[in-house]
Specification:
The chain has 339 residues and is an alpha/beta fold. The chain has three domains: 133 residues, Nitrogenase molybdenum iron protein domain (Rossmann fold); 107 residues, 3-Layer(aba) Sandwich (Rossmann fold), CATH 3.40.50.1980; 66 residues, no CATH class. Helix content is 46%, strand content 13%. Strands 2-1-3-4 form a four-stranded parallel beta sheet, with helices on both faces. The chain has a four-stranded parallel beta sheet with strand order 6-5-7-8, with helices on both faces. A three-stranded parallel beta sheet has the order 10-9-11. The termini are far apart. 40% of the residues are buried. The N terminus is likely disordered.
């Protein structure tokens, strides 16, 4: 089945990964425009997360000359420039233009060097979009990891770094895991480093951001011997089920932690009891098996009537993670219902 072309730029998907790695230089092999609009997007998003330093992007700035005669010499020159700043790693992203003219980017990146240089194909015109670029970057970076001695810990795989609440989602997953005595070994990849990526193989379990990451989860299971859970905790029942799955996968006792989480959820329901019986309508609509399903779970919990003339309440996609994510959402519902 062909990949849909309505899910954004392949290059942007890869950049959402490589620009999260500290001391990583990312080279965009293509025209300046490809770098400019992505730099503007990423800089704005980083600033919103209080990250002052701009993303470390370098453009080869291909012109008509390279389109006619080839851009490999320009890429080699740019790569040497990047290496002169002694980064921890260099990621080279090839754009649609570089792929169209047939530059052998892989051969240039494959030359042995002290600093690892990874080629990530992001010529989206060949088929693909944001998700495929995101996955290509993660696959390429996973080759830095080795199968190590396993410890009681987990890796968080495929965080969507451009999500509005990415930091809140991480804190909530970490809180839930900590309640079960399980530390996070590595984030792959969000606000991370090359040493952190190299120790991926030391974890006992991978937790995927969502089911779109399952192909990567299977690949890491084959390469590093680490099983995976398909999603972060979502919804009331889903959060408790997530804790059960982690416990089973790691062979640890979680009944006490689950009981505490249930108590936290009951307290949350009491806090928002003024919502009981309100008439609402979801101001955002998604397929029944996605965020909308979780919205109906909350509506049932508070005996809300979902009606086209009800008070508008948001059901965001992605849905907020864990119990505290639901708590933040219920604050918005309370305002929407004037409760």
């Amino acid at each position: 089945m062909p990949t849909p072309r309505d899910d954004g730029c392949t290059l942007t998907g890869a950049l959402s990964v490589t620009t999260e790695i500290r001391d990583c230089a990312t080279i965009i092999h293509g025209p300046a425009g490809c770098a400019h609009h992505n730099f503007s997007l990423l800089h704005a998003l980083h600033a919103a997360r209080d990250r002052v330093a701009p993303p470390a992007l370098i453009s080869t700035d291909m012109s008509e000359k390279e389109v006619i005669f080839g851009g490999e010499p320009l890429l080699e020159e740019t790569l040497l420039q990047a290496l002169s700043h002694h980064p921890e790693i260099v990621c080279v992203l090839s754009t649609c233009v570089a792929a169209t003219i047939g530059d052998d980017v892989e051969a240039i990146c494959h030359v042995p060097r002290t600093t690892p240089v990874l080629h990530i194909p992001t010529g989206g015109f060949l088929g693909g979009g944001f998700l495929s670029g995101h996955m290509e970057a993660l696959r390429a970076l996973s080759r830095l990891a080795a199968n190590g001695e396993k410890a009681l810990s987990v890796n968080l795989i495929g965080e969507k770094t451009l999500e509005y609440e990415v930091s809140e989602h991480f804190r909530e997953v970490s809180r839930i895991l900590q309640s079960m005595g399980v530390p996070v070994n590595a984030r792959f990849v969000c606000a991370t480093s090359v040493p952190e990526i190299r120790r991926l193989g030391n974890a006992s379990l991978n937790i995927l951001r969502d089911p779109s990451m399952v192909p990567l989860g299977r690949s890491l299971e084959d390469d590093l011997g680490i099983p995976f859970i398909e999603s972060f905790p979502l919804g009331i029942e889903g959060t408790l089920r997530f804790m059960e799955e982690v416990g089973e996968a790691l062979s640890i006792e979680t009944s006490h932690a689950i009981a505490n989480e249930e108590a936290l959820q009951h307290e949350m329901v009491r806090t928002f009891s003024s919502l009981k019986g309100k008439r609402v309508r979801f101001s955002t609509q998604y397929p029944a098996d996605g965020s909308s399903r979780l919205g109906y779970e909350l509506a049932d919990l508070f005996d809300l009537e979902v009606h086209e003339e009800g008070n508008p309440v948001p059901v965001p996609d992605p849905f907020p993670v864990g119990t505290n994510g639901i708590r933040r959402l219920l604050h918005r519902w309370k305002r929407g219902c004037h409760a």
